[in-house]
Known about the structure:
363 residues, 16 strands, hydrolase activity, hydrolase
Amino acid sequence: xxxxxxxxxxxxxxxxxxxxxxxxxxxxxxxxxxxxxxxxxxxxxxxxxxxxxxxxxxxxxxxxxxxxxxxxxxxxxxxxxxxxxxxxxxxxxxxxxxxxxxxxxxxxxxxxxxxxxxxxxxxxxxxxxxxxxxxxxxxxxxxxxxxxxxxxxxxxxxxxxxxxxxxxxxxxxxxxxxxxxxxxxxxxxxxxxxxxxxxxxxxxxxxxxxxxxxxxxxxxxxxxxxxxxxxxxxxxxxxxxxxxxxxxxxxxxxxxxxxxxxxxxxxxxxxxxxxxxxxxxxxxxxxxxxxxxxxxxxxxxxxxxxxxxxxxxxxxxxxxxxxxxxxxxxxxxxxxxxxxxxxxxxxxxxxxxxxxxxxxxxx
Length: 363
């Protein structure tokens, strides 16, 4: 069967106030949407596989990021869900299967990242949170309060990379770890220190850059954490630290290929424009491109994001060969709302997209 190109408009969403109010407003907006209907079905299955004790989750969040537990409480009120169900589905404590093939490159305050996965798990929500007592954060949502990647008002940009899910342990999943770091850290140094303290559910890497020009890759699993810091970094889907390499999947050749291409992109030119093009374009020969289009095999580029920590801007494209849309996050973090309300996504796949209703083109 030939895959059709599916096009949707992904909304840019703003939430401000207390963390509990931010959670409540999201819950009210999402009631009866296909996304929540999908999550309700998933909840019934996942309850049979793992537990997420409310008191244990509360103690964990109170220690590392108290505001997010308040957001979960508000979400429960907004969705009219029991708090136990919201904690189970969205707290990121333990969690279900995650597999993805993401690539990143960072240098001189510019952080480029492809999020490669399959669109049935995507939420299609670009979220800006402006909490009363916390950092303003932009990110692409996963499990509602989690983020696939993002940047905060301090100029810290961050994203995660799947490595393996063998031998999971009690801990927090990748998307919620990203959100905790973006909510609480200002620099790469702070983020690396926090990632060494957080309990990791699965084996993931976290790549990042900050406004001081520092970059890092933190490799985290239930069995250890390794930190690589410097003025430039590339990252795909493998651990490089010798003591953690046993965590890697058997075949890492494609990760090495994408890392080499990302390294070459940094050598050619360090700019948001160049890195966006390098990460988003397809080539005549697939081996020469960083992007991917195998959506049915859990390996298609859902978005390319290039964060400039110096100017607090982000260039976004949803799908491959997309013209980038730039958002002035510095202004958005101050409360200004861009006239851009939605961004068009285009993925060549016949898979059903349950994360959001198809939207009409804005007038």
